[in-house]
């Protein structure tokens, strides 16, 4: 990760960072938009993260030239992001000051974020999209809808899912099916019940 020093915002960061509270400062505000970010949305962002203490840059999607996409509000990112990035328009730019309890806490992260660090992020929302629908995999496999997956049903499903090149590379659908039953058919009755199935098995509410 990039540990270049970010000189620009240092004085400012020191002024706004105080312990314990998430702070959001607007750097650019779009007046109106068709859609504002809400929990569950897929957000594509640019961000630059620095340590509040000394202004050290620890990560930046801008430097990589590669915006970051994630689902808001489901714990894919630190709590401070999940809390701060709601109700934004594409084009909005904010500076977030995030206390350790809403970031990496007393443990820190890797070599770059020390324990107990307050983090400062400059974030720009680029776009908002719908989250992909959750696919009920159990229902897909259960051809005859008897709420039990037979070996034949699982085998057929594996065959449809395995790309041709993997089959050519010697991936054996029968073997994969056996492995799945070994894990999933907990009562060893030769069927994977809805209860036994550990994959996605509910329709979206
Ligand atoms: Ca079973």
TrEMBL record:
Lineage of the organism: Eukaryota, Metazoa, Ecdysozoa, Arthropoda, Crustacea
Domain EF-hand: 129-164, 172-205
Annotated spans, Disordered: 180-205
Isomerase is among the record's keywords: yes
Domain annotation PPIase FKBP-type: ranges: 40-129
Species annotation: Petrolisthes cinctipes
This protein's UniProt keywords: Calcium, Endoplasmic reticulum, Glycoprotein, Isomerase, Repeat, Rotamase, Signal
Gene Ontology MF term list: calcium ion binding; peptidyl-prolyl cis-trans isomerase activity
Any Pfam family hit: FKBP_C
Catalytic activity: [protein]-peptidylproline (omega=180) = [protein]-peptidylproline (omega=0)
Protein name (Swiss-Prot/TrEMBL): peptidylprolyl isomerase
Superkingdom: Eukaryota
GO cellular component: endoplasmic reticulum
Sections of the chain in a coiled coil: none
SUPFAM superfamilies: EF-hand, FKBP-like
Entry keyword annotation includes Endoplasmic reticulum: yes
EC number in record: 5.2.1.8
Signal peptide, first to last residue: 1-19
């Amino acid at each position: 990760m990039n540990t270049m020093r970010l000189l620009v915002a240092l004085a400012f960061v020191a002024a706004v960072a105080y312990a314990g509270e998430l702070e959001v400062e607007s750097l650019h505000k779009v007046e109106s938009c068709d859609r504002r970010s809400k929990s569950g949305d897929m957000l594509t962002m640019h961000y630059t993260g620095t340590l509040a203490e000394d202004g050290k840059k620890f990560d930046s999607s801008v430097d990589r030239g590669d915006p970051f996409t994630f689902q808001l509000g489901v714990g894919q990112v630190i709590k401070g992001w999940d809390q701060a990035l709601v109700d934004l328009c594409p084009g909005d730019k904010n500076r977030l000051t995030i206390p350790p309890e809403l970031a990496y806490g007393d443990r820190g992260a890797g070599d770059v974020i020390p324990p107990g660090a307050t983090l400062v992020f400059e974030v720009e929302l680029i776009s908002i999209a719908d989250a992909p629908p959750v696919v009920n995999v159990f229902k897909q496999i259960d051809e005859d809808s008897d709420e039990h997956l037979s070996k034949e049903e699982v085998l057929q499903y594996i065959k449809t899912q395995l790309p041709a090149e993997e089959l050519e590379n010697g991936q054996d659908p029968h073997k994969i099916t056996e492995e799945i039953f070994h894990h999933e058919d907990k009562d060893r009755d030769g069927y994977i019940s809805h209860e036994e199935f550990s994959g996605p098995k509910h329709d979206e509410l």
